[in-house]
Design brief:
Elements (H helix, E strand, L loop, with lengths): L19 H6 L3 H13 L9 H13 L3 E5 L2 H11 L7 E4 L9 H5 L3 E4 L11 H5 L6 E5 L10 H11 L2 E5 L7 E2 L2 E2 L6 E5 L12 E5 L2 H10 L24 H32 L5 E2 L7 E2 L5 E5 L1 H4 L3 H10 L17 H4 L28 H9 L1 E3 L7 H24 L1
Parallel strand pairs: 2-3, 2-4, 4-5, 5-8
Antiparallel strand pairs: 1-9, 6-7, 6-11, 8-9, 10-12, 12-13
Helix pairs in contact: 2-9, 3-9, 4-8, 9-14
This protein binds pyridoxal-5'-phosphate.
């Protein structure tokens, strides 16, 4: 039996898998040219420049929607969307416990209450059933988070929302171009929110955008992102309370070039994932990513898990052993469900007050405690995540599969010889 690198054997992969060259290769002369154009124009702020406005038009066309509002981040995009639909004190907004704080900060920043629906154990996405279980007459909106590249199963969620007259704000930060029954994420709910931070499929460093087929909502989101200024009237007025969530012209210029690369990035990632699936599908003990019928994954990352009973090893040790083989699997990928993060657990959002949780306009008890979403908590203990990149080659896929196979074999054979 081959000795694992973790216990003194030879590594499957000697060269690093994640390399700076891949990071740099995301940007080329087109991005440089676009940035230079902004500098040459003398206007770096969107109020005076053309790039951000142009990017909004490009995004609308790309997703075939009525309008887009570009923002300073994905978090800002969700904040603008929630503000546009009028979320405020006393409202509840349902979302996923397995996400980034960026899905939850905007709810709290509007003095509303985040309510967590449990996830499906195979996709880690919230579902119509889990949403229904926490729905109340206070629910104003649901933010389905399309996790790690896979759209939520949207038809039953949309049906539920319609029945209860609640808004759907899709969080698409991790799932550009994933589809559900052929429909793109972001175009199914009332509004779709995207992030352009440095870790996403496409990036301009930091940025985001909201899309919608409702022009009124987009116009409110735009106003919220620019202090409520219409910038058309002779006498300046703020027509709606808002923040400064403007993206700069420099970022918009980069984002615009990146958008043109998006389809190819997703295609290459899907090809890579398909190759990995094929190499891993017969490896005893490995469960390749579970994808719901009718959904197309866009592989922000490559999620999988192991049959811990069959292999006789837990996910944490497995991740450590594979990492020692030269294939990094950070574990845990996300340690805690969001509701156990300090500000939520301790209900400390606004200074020493317990607002919004104990706001008189809410008047209900909130318990962000362990056990709130048992499936999510369990999933976080066995979820394994491999990196995915449009720059990974066939030989990278083979190395990843070899490392996983070696570790599985080691445990399977070790068990039979015991
Ligand atoms: C699911 C999800 N929602 C929202 C965000 C927030 O995006 P940003 O970092 O651009 O504010 C992120 C970012 O990691 C995310 O992964």
């Amino acid at each position: 039996m081959l000795k694992l690198a973790a216990y003194g054997g030879t590594k499957v992969r000697k060269a690093p898998l994640l390399v700076e060259e891949h990071s740099k290769a995301r940007f080329g002369k087109e991005e440089k040219k676009a940035v230079a154009e902004v500098i040459d124009s003398g206007h770096l702020c969107r109020v005076f420049g053309a790039k951000a406005k142009h990017f909004e038009n490009e995004v609308s066309e790309y997703f075939s929607v009525s309008g887009a509002a570009v923002t300073a981040s994905g978090t800002a995009a969700i904040h603008c969307a929630l503000a546009a639909i009028g979320v405020g004190p006393g409202d509840e907004v349902i979302t996923s416990p397995i996400t980034d704080m960026g899905s939850v900060i905007p709810i709290l920043a509007l003095n509303a209450i985040p309510v967590f629906a449990d996830v499906d154990p195979k996709t880690y996405n919230i579902t119509a059933e889990t949403i229904k279980a926490v729905l109340t007459n206070r629910t104003k909106a649901v933010i389905p988070v399309h996790f790690i590249g896979q759209s939520c199963v949207m038809e039953p969620i949309l049906h539920l929302a319609k029945k209860h007259n609640i808004y759907i704000i899709e969080d698409c930060a991790q799932s550009y171009l994933s589809t559900c029954s052929g429909r793109l994420v972001g175009t199914m709910g009332d509004m779709g929110c995207f992030s352009l931070n440095d870790f996403k499929h496409i990036t301009c460093g930091d940025g985001g955008f909201v899309i919608s087929n409702n022009k009124d909502l987009i116009s409110r989101a735009r106003l919220f992102a620019d202090k409520g200024y219409t910038r058309t009237e002779a006498v300046r007025n703020s027509v709606l309370f808002g923040l400064n969530y403007r993206i700069s012209e420099l970022q918009a210029a980069v984002a615009s070039v990146q958008l043109k690369k998006l389809a190819s990035i997703i295609e290459r990632r899907r090809n890579f994932a398909r190759k990995l699936d094929n190499l891993l599908k017969h490896v005893e003990g490995i469960n390749t990513p579970f994808i719901e019928d009718g959904i197309e994954h866009s592989f922000w990352l490559y999620p999988f898990n192991i049959d811990e009973n069959k292999l006789g090893v837990n996910a944490e040790t497995f991740a450590w052993e594979v990492t020692a083989e030269g294939i990094p699997i950070p574990f845990p990928y996300i340690g805690l469900p969001i509701y156990l993060y300090d500000p939520l657990k301790n209900k400390q959002i606004y200074g020493k007050s317990s607002c919004p949780f104990e706001c008189h306009l809410y008047g209900k008890n909130v318990s962000n405690i362990k056990g709130l979403c048992p499936v999510a908590e369990k999933s976080l203990t066995n979820m394994l995540i491999l990196p995915c990149s449009e720059f990974f080659s066939d030989s990278d896929a083979r190395d990843i599969a070899s490392a996983l196979t070696k570790v599985c074999d080691y445990h399977l054979k070790g068990q039979t010889s015991r």
